[in-house]
Amino acid sequence: MESKNKRFQQGFHTAGIFLALVVVYLVLAVPFRVMTVIPGFTEIRPVQLLKPVYGVFFGIPGCFAFAVGNLIGDLLGDSLRWSSIAGFAANFAGPFVFWLFWSRVSKTPFALRTGGDLLKQLAATVASGAVEALLITPVVMLVYADVDAGLFAATVFLNGTVFPLLLGIPLMILMREEFGFRPCANRHAPL
Predict the structure, then answer these.
(1) Can you give the pTM of this predicted structure?
(2) Which candidate, 125, 95, 105, 80, places its Cα nearest to that of 18?
(3) DSSP state at residue 114
(4) Quick one: how far is CA 190 from the chain centroid?
(5) Phi, psi dihedral angles at 180 (to 5 degrees)
(6) 115-143 and 50-76 helices, crossing angle to 10°
(7) Structural domain boundaries, residue 14
(8) Is 188 domain-assigned?
(9) In a domain, 185, yes or no
(10) What are 147-158's pLDDT values in tens digits?
(11) CA 20 to 30 Å from 130, out of 88, 121, 146, 161?
């Protein structure tokens, strides 16, 4: 009975974190929906700064929260389309790349204290942006032939790399070093 109660509490805690992450995503995403690049398809997305944060600090629930937040944003921004399915997959995969890199690939625990750590984060960011663009662009091209695929892919990639690098890294350093957030992506002993 105690084990069942503990699992319920953990599930309730995870659901609360998930909902809070979706709300934070929407608070940062919705106001910027007006900065469109291709109307109805893509815009300048500062919310992408949260992508590595959600993957590294919140793991799989963070990846789902990022994807669900994007889907709700599409609905609220009147840009819910068939390509939103690929958008859901891409917005799950983006933070997942960070979780996967820091929990399975890196031989050292997550930290952004050295030049080597920052280079690793740069590589993960570029990989994440590329994965997002590669997942969603072919679907948009297939379903909406009138959309400029090159501009679309470039916008997705740049949003997925510039904001996580320029704003995401400082936020992650602040969360880790000043506020003591523990990365859930670490399979290594805590620092």
Answers:
(1) 0.90
(2) 95
(3) S
(4) 23
(5) 70, 20
(6) 20
(7) 2-178
(8) no
(9) no
(10) 999 999 999 999
(11) 146
